[in-house]
């Protein structure tokens, strides 16, 4: 099924396999029910595009704080669709592009998608694609306008397209005119309870024994972190958590203390 | 008559048939008297241009919230005119154009129209044509100025032109200098009562039986939606409604619940 | 005399006859004494330029709300001068021009005028020539500066020039530096009393009988419009009035009601 | 002497005779002592440049409201110097120039002046040269910076230069950085008393008899204008006054009334 | 070990040895424990990159007031890594570059780094690289966007990269969107106690005898400087201190007094 | 010694002798002790650059109100260094340069200086080099950024450089990011007491006899100017004073009165 499909790889014409894998290098850890819900919603959108003739264009926004896994989830959904055309539009491949080069590159991907009966385009990191900076509220209006039109333009007869966009600046999107643009919006939350944290620690095998691991969780509880994530301010993206885990791994004798130290530092 | 004419297709020299059909793919559902009124007004403007020598130029604005059907209605009126020259000026075909390319493309359509004794031009989505973004109130002044002049410039002797413009940013139009530009303005309202909703559901045959349909309406009534649309905050554009209907269709066993869920979500 | 001359047409070297006629297509209706006063003032300026050697340059501004007839009156005065050089500088013929193309086109007309002993230039719609938009107070400073200099630059020895400018944005002109630029300013008012309205209705022969016409006036009086224009808020430009009249004409059975309906709608 | 020299014309190498005469076409009317004082000061600056080796560069600003005669007085002083190099830098000859063309043209005049042992440059209408507009406080910083440097740059060894600049926007000059730039500043005032007005009327021979003239003055006194200009708000530039006089001349039967009418209109 | 490695020089393919040495010309003086801590942290990041496959990209920010030694410390850490690819991206080598030349030069260094299995890039003085000026909050958004993407873009498979950035405008970095960009941030503090000062004076051998040196410290204590740096406002970057020391050296007879004078001047 | 050296001229390879002399045409008048102090400080910086290997780059800012002699003093210090490379970077030689031409010209001088073992660069009038205008706080960020980098960039090994910058806009320098840029800042004050004024008058031999001169001083004292400059508002730059003296010289019979008149005018 879909969940399993995420693990497999199906090379196909028009699919940028390598780029997609690059952004899900560390896999998807199912640390919380919400992860499965997001993937399931994605599966439904894929099906709608595949089957409904009345909605040849469906667009979804994955949003949430930096580093919560928006890109990895978006790419996973796209990959699992097994559509003949799957592309990633990412600022990573457009460094130093002029406004018009960006617009051209983006438009090209959409134009190409119109040649395939079924397509998915992941438009990653909208705020970076439009060169957004909070200071002076600067951004590329040319790229913005292109996205606004492309996100609303129906593919030609007989073609169907799923757009998966990601952003960590949801409020800005409204300010620049993206309200009512998406058919659906899914929030990707940070890790905010100890159960999810423990799940991740087990998956990445940071500790030799589960005793050690439980010890760390206990310490964190004593430091004021609470298991249910409600009363505590503890919030961390999976990306930063994985990075902290690797830093802690540097000092084998002291892993537990380095990790709790870093997490407690965050909590303040 | 006019109402029926909307259903037929009359290929003619200078008419961009395909583009027009693309924007009314899902047809016009006559869910409310106001739909007919708008089409009837359109018919009158068409007649005025056809017959009155003193007003060789007539311009109308269709405005209303996103997704209420402005483009589809404008295109329908244009198509029904059966004028020899009917064109759609749409941001969809100008992605990535520079300011001056846009101005040139727009001006070209007007210049071409002056060669036909009778013409209709649909200028779709003014705010997108001028690259409007609320943040920083940015827009292309070059395109704006071209539109302001073209909307007021009389066609040469013996030529007559009907301009149908659409916008979901009516207040902005005043701010940028469009007041007093149009001979007439027509507001396209969202669906805001259950009777209209039921009409649509019947037309798209979402449910197998009319019992099921009535059941959904009843549920919505119980959820606080009222039939007359006055006391409730329920408002939805036909475009979004059609999209929700297709999403609901994805889960055949659960259509009614998915639809009411989505609509109730909106109402908040 | 001058009044009659307005009716005649005198083709002459350097006169853009066709353009002038285009803007007074519907003629001048003498619905109020102020119309004659404006034409008479224009005649005096024409004479001053023709005779006084000390003021080889005279500039006049016709200003007033949109659609009151500024362009038609300016063109009429120019045409009646019978000067060998009469030109219209209008945004209509500069759609899509760059700033520098506009400046070049405008400057060219002035340079050409310096070759004729007597010239009139109608500079129509200053705010549109300078690409003015209220949002962000944007405009072309290059065109503005060119106008400021050209409006104050004396023609070479032995040449005389009358400049007739029009604008519906009088207050803006002061803000951008046009104060003290014109030798004289004439306000063109809207129609604001029933007598003038009745005069127009008679001239355009909207009704078959004068009874019908008087009936309409009476209805308007009852609707609160007053004959002297003082106590009522009723104000309409001749251009919009003529457009409403043509719309009303579309439904022969219902002319009177459509017209009063439209006018009452305005009054609110 | 100097006063007389103003009347004569001395063609010389490097002198733009024609342009200078163009701007003093209507001559200098000595309607007030201040006119002579300004000309006398100008004469002294000319002498300082001619004789003092320690101040090879002297710059003077003539400022005052629009139309008071700044340009005519500046040109008169320059012409009377009889220096081998006399040039007028005026916005009139730079319509449509780009920023860099303006800078080049201005710089060229200064570079040329450095070839003459003695030079005068009249830099007319600074605010127009820098494309100043009050709305948005826009101006050409490139031209401004060029002027700031050129006004302070010493000519090469053995060369001497007098700069006479004019402006009707004295306060702006300070705001854009022109304070401390000029060695001296002279204010050119408007006409503000009836004696000066009468002097002008006599000079231009508007009336056949001096009785008529005195009659007009009397009427103005009765209308509230006072002879000493202190208690009244009556202020008019010589340029506008001469223009009003010519308008009045248009209706020979009614000269007195038209003139007083126009002047009284001003006073309000 | 690492500390010693800083003193040695290991020429290697892809290492800009000379540039690195240029910025640590005056060596690293270990005047405070924090200096060693920063170098030790740097060493750990180097190790993480060398060993952990899950974090192929690690980025660190060295920030602190002007002249505290950020660049020298960053370069020292890079040099000590002995990675085959070590480069310095510095505004010093980009004077007069256009925005796009800067972006190209920066992107080139990153692209080159991707060819080496292990790389360090020192991105020096971010605020200068982006042409930041506080007045009007101006900066190059093009360079900023390039840095934002490059700092977050994973190197290709099998490549690992350590980024060491420096800035003396930490708060600005947040304002322009750099929050959450770095894996770690290290603050480089100024010298703020007399013990550290005395350490430096001894190292640079400003005084012939240690008596003289202690005398100066005593004078400073009397002038209100306190040894613990808590109660006093005395704060100085190592760079400025070294410069003051050299100025004092100019007057051999008066070294002590010149130095204390300069330091006391600072303290105000 | 240094003081005397200022009077002599030592032509040398890489020295722009002529330009330097141009700016000190009227010599240096030692009207106050502060003049000597500034020159003495300059001499010390020259020595530091000549001798200290640890500070191969020293930068000094001369600042003060317009016309106090900053440029002349900077040029004098540079000339007295007798370094093989002495250049003046001045806005005077860059009129009409584009931003990038300016940056190129400035960068070129620094690059050239790196070829000489010992160099002085006088960077005159920073605010003009960066096209600063207070209105709208406009300036060339490109030139500013180039200066910021060049003022902090160490010359290559074995090269030493003294930078002497001047500015009459000290507060602006901080606002645009120049704080902490200079190793030292020297304030050049205006003349503000009668003793200094008398010294200047004697040096320039304005009066035939010292009696006349003393008479003037007495008059100024009576007019409220005080000898110590504390209680009075009298402040004048040496440049303006020399200019006033030359103006007064124009009327030999009236020198004293013209001078006191002008000075009293200033004091208000
Ligand atoms: N449940 C999960 N969801 C998403 N990512 C996961 C999950 N489990 C592990 N990961 C890993 O965590 C990382 C998430 O990083 P990703 O770049 O997708 O985050 P992001 O939200 O897009 O960050 P940014 O805000 O910087 O764009 C990836 O390396 C991914 O393989
Ligand atoms: N009565 C109706 N009026 C308009 N459109 C209708 C109607 N009934 C069905 N439709 C369908 O609804 C859709 C309306 O979408 P359309 O693009 O015209 O809306 P819009 O208001 O122009 O949206 P936007 O604000 O995004 O431009 C079309 O697919 C059209 O075929
Ligand atoms: N008395 C009149 N004065 C002016 N125009 C009149 C008069 N009577 C009839 N007309 C007709 O009315 C129309 C006036 O339109 P015109 O374009 O001159 O108005 P305008 O004030 O220039 O409008 P805008 O503000 O849009 O530039 C013309 O068609 C003209 O022929
Ligand atoms: N005493 C006078 N001083 C100046 N000009 C005079 C005088 N007497 C007559 N004139 C005439 O008055 C006119 C003054 O116009 P001028 O263009 O010099 O004014 P201005 O102050 O430069 O105007 P603007 O503010 O528009 O630049 C000229 O035609 C000049 O010949
Ligand atoms: N402990 C130290 N840490 C850093 N630099 C030191 C230390 N001891 C001596 N130095 C010397 O001090 C100078 C520090 O200057 P550096 O340019 O690194 O400072 P910076 O903080 O980068 O300055 P800026 O804010 O101007 O970029 C270098 O010459 C370096 O050799
Ligand atoms: N003691 C002095 N210091 C400086 N200049 C002096 C002194 N005595 C005489 N001078 C003369 O005074 C003039 C000073 O002008 P300078 O251009 O140096 O002033 P500045 O402060 O640079 O002016 P600006 O603010 O316009 O740049 C020069 O001509 C110089 O020869
Ligand atoms: Mg992402
Ligand atoms: Mg639409
Ligand atoms: Mg008009
Ligand atoms: Mg003038
Ligand atoms: Mg640094
Ligand atoms: Mg100077």
User: How are the strands of the biggest sheet of chain A laid out side by side?
Assistant: 2-3-4-1-5
> Percent of residues of chain A in helical segments?
40-55%
The general outline of chain A is elongated
Based on the coordinates given, report the CATH architecture of the largest domain in chain A. Answer: 3-Layer(aba) Sandwich
Mean pLDDT of chain A: 90
The CATH class designation of the largest domain in chain A is: Alpha Beta
What oligomeric state is this? homohexamer
Number of folding domains of chain A? 2
CATH topology of the largest domain in chain A: Rossmann fold
Task: Write up what this structure looks like.
The structure is a homohexamer of 268-residue chains. The first copy, chain A, has a 5-stranded parallel sheet with strand order 2-3-4-1-5, sandwiched between helices. Chain A has 268 residues and is of the alpha/beta class. The model of chain A is unreliable at 6-12 (pLDDT under 50). Chain A folds into 2 domains: 2-187, P-loop containing nucleotide triphosphate hydrolases (Rossmann fold, 3-Layer(aba) Sandwich), CATH 3.40.50.300; 194-267, no CATH class. In chain A, 44% of the residues are buried. The radius of gyration of chain A is 20 Å and the shape is elongated. In chain A, strand 2, helix 5 (99-113) and strand 3 (118-123) form a beta-alpha-beta unit. In chain A, helix 11 (238-249) packs antiparallel against helix 12. Chain A contains 12 helices and 5 strands. The C-D interface holds C 44, 47-48, 51-52, 54-55, 58, 100, 103-104, 107, 137, 139, 141-142, 144-146, 148-150, 153-154, 156-157, 172, 175-177, 180, 183-184 and D 22, 25-26, 66-67, 91-92, 94-96, 98, 128, 131-136, 138, 204, 240, 242-243, 245-247, 249-251. Bound molecules: adenosine-5'-triphosphate (6 copies) and magnesium ion (6 copies). One magnesium ion binds at residues 70-71, 124-125, 166 of chain F. One magnesium ion binds next to helix 4 of chain E.
């Amino acid at each position: 099924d879909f969940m399993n499909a995420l693990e497999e790889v199906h090379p196909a014409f028009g699919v940028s396999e390598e780029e997609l894998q690059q952004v899900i290098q560390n896999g998807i850890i199912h640390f919380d029910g919400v992860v499965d819900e997001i993937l399931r919603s994605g599966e439904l959108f894929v099906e709608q595009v595949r089957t409904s003739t009345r909605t040849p264009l469906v667009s979804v926004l994955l949003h949430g704080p930096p580093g919560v896994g928006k890109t990895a989830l978006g790419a996973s959904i796209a990959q699992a669709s097994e559509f003949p055309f799957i592309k990633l539009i990412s600022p990573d491949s457009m460094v130093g592009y002029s406004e018009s080069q960006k617009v051209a590159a983006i438009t090209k991907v959409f134009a190409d998608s119109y040649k395939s009966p079924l397509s998915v385009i992941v438009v990653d990191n909208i705020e970076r694609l439009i060169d957004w900076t909070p200071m002076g509220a600067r951004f590329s209006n040319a790229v913005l306008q292109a996205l606004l039109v492309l996100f609303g333009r129906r593919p030609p007869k007989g073609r169907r397209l799923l757009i998966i966009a990601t952003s960590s600046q949801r409020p800005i999107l409204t300010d620049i005119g993206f309200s009512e643009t998406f058919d659906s919006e899914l929030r990707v939350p940070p890790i905010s309870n100890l159960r999810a944290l423990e799940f991740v620690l087990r998956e990445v095998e940071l500790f030799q024994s589960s005793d050690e691991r439980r010890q760390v969780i206990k310490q964190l509880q004593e430091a004021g972190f609470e298991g249910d994530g409600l009363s505590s301010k503890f919030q961390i993206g999976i990306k930063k958590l994985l990075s902290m885990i690797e830093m802690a791994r540097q000092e084998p004798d002291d892993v537990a203390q380095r990790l709790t130290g870093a997490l407690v530092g965050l909590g303040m």
